[in-house]
Amino acid sequence: MLITGASSGLGADFARAFAARGSRLILVARRADRLNELAAELHEAHGTECVVIPWDLGTWRAGSDLAAEVSRRGLRVDVVVNNAGFGTHRAIADENADTVASEIALNVGALVDLSRAFLPGMIARNDGVILNVASTAAFQSLPYLGVYAATKAFVLSFTEALWGELENTDVQALALCPGPTRTEFFDVAGSDAIAGPLQESPVVVAKAMKALDRRRPKPFVISGTGNWWGAAASRFAPRKTVIRLGRKIMLANRPH
After folding, report:
1. Of these residues, 18, 118, 148, 154, which one is catalytic?
2. Domain-by-domain residue ranges, the chain?
3. In what order do the strands lie in the sheet with 171-178?
4. pTM for the full predicted model
5. What is the pLDDT of residues 93-120, one digit of tens each?
6. What CATH number has the domain spanning 2-252?
7. Annotated catalytic, 144?
């Protein structure tokens, strides 16, 4: 199985959870030192066989290039965890163009490329999982976190479409929608982007694993009861109200 963004946070905890189940892992992130440390930890704890592939997925076609590298190494992928992603907390007009391009390439482009690359093999074997990490931000527009929220809305919609295409197979597609989680995400977005209590990463991962253990999981799962109610309210409340509320929350925490 292949996990992106595996060097820390949710990605590392997904690696730990799957390693405990006896999976062989392909760990992908930019930081080779972190990946090697995790691989050593998992081998010591579970005897896990890990392949470390340092790779920057924040450029166009990087996902396709990674898939080609995995194929070149003769590695079979039955599970893809598309976890890599980042966000920035500022007005669209103030965003750096290169940062925005990298954010979209990573959060959207690489996720689609990797899903597309490995799905044919899964479908042929009638076995596999595409797990895409979205966010509760997928359910609402968030001024000052606009690009990130839009990419996660894409991830949710894309995964739901995959779920529909795969419903009559034994290949699963699941979008994990956590709320604010204690990871390095806020090192990039800034601690001021936190809106609500933080969940712990292993708790979020456990929620996803429980969903995957069901014979027919739903298209998405939300981690946390409060997050579930917030996402539900944002779907049924008037859109202007949702946008204005999101703006108020983000402005209250906006960096100066």
Report:
1. 148
2. 2-252
3. 50-54, 25-29, 2-4, 79-82, 128-133, 171-178, 220-223
4. 0.90
5. 999 999 999 999 999 999 999 999 999 9
6. 3.40.50.720
7. no
